[in-house]
Write a structure and sequence with these properties.
By secondary structure, the chain is an alpha/beta fold. It is 36% helix and 16% strand. The mean pLDDT is 96. The chain has a 7-stranded parallel beta sheet. It has a two-stranded antiparallel ribbon with strand order 1-2. Helix 9 links the parallel strand 10 (223-225) and strand 11. The relative contact order is 0.16. It contains 13 helices and 13 strands. It has 2 domains: 2-104 and 338-345, Enolase-like, N-terminal domain (Enolase-like, domain 1, 2-Layer Sandwich), CATH 3.30.390.10; 109-327, Alpha-Beta Barrel (TIM Barrel), CATH 3.20.20.120. The protein has helices spanning 48-64, 71-77, 85-102, 107-111, 130-143, 158-167, 186-190, 209-218, 232-241, 251-254, 257-269, 283-292, 340-345, and strands at 2-9, 12-16, 20-26, 29-35, 117-119, 122-124, 147-151, 172-176, 200-201, 223-225, 246-249, 274-276, 325-327. The protein starts with a strand and ends in a 13-residue tail after the last helix. Bound molecules: N-succinyl phenylglycine. Residues 38, 43, 123, 176, 178, 226, 277-280, 303, 305 line the site of N-succinyl phenylglycine. N-succinyl phenylglycine binds at residues 38, 43, 123, 176, 178, 226, 277-280, 303, 305.
Length: 358
């Protein structure tokens, strides 16, 4: 799917999105899920083609071999396969969607949502010039976004932040480095304190927990981890070490909405704020993210923007901005409907899995 505008991060630029959907058909209905992996293994190890292969060869057969296919059983059935959390998340989402649609219950209700609308922000990629960045931010502020996340990388940090902060002194700002810095960059990162930001996200590589703890100890700006946190266990370890004080939760990174809820619960028990990240999902994955972000521990605005920020035409009905919020779908399952005409127009390839029944 073509993105409305290219999205550049410290790990590369994207102009289109390879979307991998899981469509589950059960005796009582159907369900959809989205695997958040991208075309290249640049955010983490997983990528779309690998996720598809693992789904076909191992994950779908493992789930189909369950006597009783329930969303609660998906993670256990998939445990033998290491990693591939986005693939597992897409499969679990589809099974849960089918289950909930059949029961006329929503994702929000099942996950424990306590809000009917969620506060959202926008994630702004690296632009060719600082002026273009300020212009883009201005557009999003006009749209209604009150929290902006800027992507940073070595060589694109102090100057763009200075420009955006001067243009919008009161804007809720945060930055995301996507692991682009080295522990040796701590002096430079410490300078970011002067911009009065909500948080700095994942400055170093995922396994650099000690270095994140050292940075957190010298900075006033809270450190949030994203790529480092793949499970409840990782979240608790990072918190115990002082490597972060805020946790970003992404369904595709942690292996599914149910693990995402467990991370939320564990953080909430400790009084640690969490917020919901995004991976440029279509309406399918976005619907799950919105339901998740409506849980009580999600206290920072989510990286879940309106559909028009990404797509000229989404594959479901679009999510729209109301002020700085998005309404949580209340209908059965994900509460959105995949439009087969749009799938066809996009040239979607359907790969039936009957073959794995044998
Ligand atoms: O709004 O969905 C969104 C994108 C939010 O910046 C965003 N996602 O590192 O958090 C990230 C980043 C991302 C993009 C991650 C693409 C992975 C792939």
């Amino acid at each position: 799917m073509p993105l409305v505008r290219p999205f550049r991060t410290s790990f590369g630029v994207q102009s289109t999105r390879d979307v991998l959907l899981v469509h589950v058909i059960t005796d009582s209905g159907e369900g959809w899920g989205e695997c958040a992996a991208h075309a290249e293994p640049f955010y983490n190890e997983e990528f779309t083609e690998s996720a598809m292969m693992v789904l076909r060869r191992w994950l779908v057969p493992a789930v189909r071999s369950l006597g009783d296919v329930t969303a609660d059983a998906v993670a256990g059935a998939c445990r033998q396969v290491k990693g591939y959390r986005a693939a597992k998340a897409g499969l679990e989402m589809a099974v849960l969607d089918a289950e909930l649609r059949a029961a006329s219950s929503s994702f929000a209700a099942r996950l424990g949502a306590t809000r009917t609308a969620i506060d959202v922000g926008v994630s702004v990629g690296i632009t060719p010039t600082v002026d273009e960045l300020v212009e883009q931010v201005a557009g999003y502020v006009t749209d209604g976004y009150r929290r902006v996340k800027l992507k940073i990388m070595p060589g694109w940090d102090l100057a763009p932040l200075q420009a955006v902060r001067s243009a919008f002194p009161d804007l809720a700002l945060q930055v995301d480095a996507n692991a682009g810095y080295e522990p040796g960059d701590a002096d430079l990162l410490a300078e970011l304190d002067r911009f009065g930001m909500l948080m700095i996200e994942q400055p170093y590589a995922p396994d650099e927990l000690q270095a994140h703890a050292a940075l957190a100890a010298r900075m006033a700006t809270p450190i949030c981890l994203d790529e480092s946190i793949l499970s409840v266990g990782h979240a608790l370890t990072a918190l115990d070490m002082g490597a972060c004080t805020i946790v970003n939760i992404k369904v595709g990174r942690v292996g599914g909405v149910l693990e995402a809820v467990r991370i939320h619960d564990a953080c909430r028990e400790r009084g640690v704020p969490v917020w919901c990240g995004g991976m440029l999902e279509t309406g399918v994955g976005r619907a799950a993210n919105v339901a998740l972000a409506a849980l009580p521990g999600f206290t920072f605005p989510a990286d879940i923007s309106a559909s028009e920020r990404y797509w000229r035409r989404d594959i479901t009905e679009p999510f729209v901005l109301q002020g700085s919020t998005i309404e949580v779908p209340a209908g059965p399952g994900l509460g959105v409907t995949v439009d087969p005409d749009v799938l066809q127009e996009l040239g979607a390839v359907v790969e039936p899995q009957e073959d794995v029944l044998a």
